[in-house]
Amino acid sequence: MLKTENSPEHTWLAYCGNYCGDCLLFHGEVTDLAGVLLRRLKLMEHDQSAHHSPQLPHSEIYQQYCHRLYEALYSIDELRCTQLCREGGGSEFCKIRKCCVQHDLDGCWDCAELTQCSILQEFDAISLEAKMRTLLEIRENGVEGFLKDLKKRQKLVRKTPCHINPHLKSK
After folding, report:
1. Which residues make beta-bridge pairs with 13?
2. Where are the beta strands (DSSP E) in the chain?
3. Which of 16, 26, 30, 32 could form a disulfide with 96 if both were Cys (CB 3.0 to 4.6 A apart)?
């Protein structure tokens, strides 16, 4: 199926079926928190404290893995999307976007080989199941129908007391 004229809301739907409006990386929440934690740990010279406090519980393990914590925080701090997927945001290495653009597909849901896709098979089993469920829902209901249902689900989530995403607050 070839790409069709879409609503402005459609641009927020990535080729893989993810909705950029719900993405923590797009909003920067995770990256901001990682950056704050990284700066705070560096300010406190936290990496050195494990070496000077061997009596603390697990200090040997911490000494061993402290550098990995910093590497992970640096990596997370750099994981920020500044554009929507359809506008060139996300990872430049995204195989899904490259495939959809190359085959002139609106998204994976338009691909005849969806259920046998080798790119999607790279996801772990739980992620693949969720991804496939989303893509098949988009295929069945159409993009606009999926987005309409998504908005209904988002309203329900916003009413849930344990939901903490500040970007999805009720207006």
Report:
1. 19
2. none
3. 16
**Residues 6 or more apart whose Cβ sits within 8 Å of residue 115:** 132
How far apart are alpha carbons 94 and 85 in whole angstroms?
Answer: 10
Q: Give the pair of three-digit tokens for residue 120.
A: 């999607």
Q: Per the structure block, which two tokens stand in for 23?
A: 């993405």
CA-CA distances (angstroms) from residue 36 to 3, 30, 43, 66, 80?
41, 10, 10, 17, 14
The alpha carbon dihedral of 60, 38, 127, 1 has a sign of negative
Cβ(95)–Cβ(71) below 8 Å = no
pLDDT digits (tens, 9 = 90+) for 109-166: 999 999 999 999 999 888 899 999 999 999 999 999 999 999 888 776 666 555 444 4
User: Is residue 20 within 8 Å of 89, Cβ to Cβ?
Assistant: yes
Delimit the domains of the chain by residue range. 91-163
